[in-house]
């Protein structure tokens, strides 16, 4: 019997991201950040939300270490890019409820997918949030090519 809700596909968690792939992501992220002159922190967690890698580029602000990790964890725990939370807060109104959830509402966190399953997440911090997001996107594109 239907309850009126369309069937949604649920993205599953997969096997944990390998250190080798985390290193590839970090290298691609650092290359993109360097091309743009941004000093950033790159944090990568596996599908169990365990830290696999943290990489602070020279001169990246220390505060970005915790922020990058929070972005990665939020993207993993909620199975979506953290830009969604940033946009919800920016719209105000009911979107402000995100401030009551343990989530990082700043762009730059993205799930890492392999064969349609989430194997980890990346968090980037150190520049403007849209720049953090661009670096995360570049890293994911490098992994998928």
Task: Explain briefly what this protein structure is.
By secondary structure, this protein is an alpha+beta fold.
What would you say this structure looks like, in words?
The protein is α+β, with helices and mostly antiparallel strands. The protein has a single domain, classed as Beta-Lactamase (2-Layer Sandwich). Helix content is 39%, strand content 19%. It has 4 helices and 4 strands, in the order H-E-E-H-H-E-E-H. The chain has helices spanning 19-36, 63-77, 83-91, 129-143; strands at 41-46, 51-56, 109-114, 117-125. It has a 4-stranded antiparallel beta sheet. Helix 1 (19-36) packs across helix 4. The longest helix has 18 residues, at 19-36. The radius of gyration is 15 Å and the shape is globular.
């Amino acid at each position: 019997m239907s309850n009126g809700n369309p069937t949604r596909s649920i993205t599953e968690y997969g096997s944990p991201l390998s250190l080798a792939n985390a290193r590839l992501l970090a290298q691609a992220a650092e290359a993109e950040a360097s091309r743009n002159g941004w000093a950033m922190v790159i944090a990568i967690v596996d599908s169990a939300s365990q830290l696999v890698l943290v990489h602070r580029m020279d001169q990246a602000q220390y505060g970005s270490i915790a922020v990058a990790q929070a972005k990665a964890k939020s993207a993993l725990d909620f199975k979506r890019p953290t830009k969604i939370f940033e946009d919800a807060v920016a719209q105000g109104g009911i979107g402000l409820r995100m401030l009551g959830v343990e989530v990082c509402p700043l762009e730059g966190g993205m799930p890492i997918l392999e064969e349609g399953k989430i194997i980890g997440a990346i968090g980037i911090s150190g520049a403007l949030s849209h720049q953090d997001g661009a670096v995360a996107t570049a890293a994911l594109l490098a992994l998928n090519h």
